[in-house]
Amino acid sequence: MNRAVFLDRDGVINVDKQYVSQIENFEFIEGVFDLLLTLQEMGYLLIVITNQSGIGRGYYTLEDFQKLTEWKLDQLKQRGITIHKVYYCPHSPESHCDCRKPSPKMLLDAQKQFNIDMKRSWMVGDKKSDIEAGKNAGVGKTIFVKNGEKEEPLADYCIDRISELKILVKQFD
Q: Biggest alpha carbon distance in the chain?
């Protein structure tokens, strides 16, 4: 079985600027390339799990999201990083769909598709719903990236910046 690191997008891979949908507004978080390369070298599958309610709210289109995602994946690929898949929920919170985090659906879909051992995997996010989705899916460890937030959900670990995750994962590998 494979092990994976499930990563939220906004606030974990890129700076959360509220409904980022255009390449010119996308800014990778400092240290994320080094982190992703390290995780990949350690044998983790890298899977993005992201709520994209801006689509359901009409702030941007599915095509905008797909274009940005393709560009992001290409930027990562140029640095030797492979994201195995991007799972996304395009619905607004009001739609009460079954895929929006904190629902575990996107993680469980990834588990089936990639034969993932959830107990040996990690969920990394900067929102309470990310941590809850990881716990709901039975992920072994959940990591909350504070990004200046005061409230800390019941994650297994809380870190101030994404770059700290590299040290943490190496301790438990």
A: 43
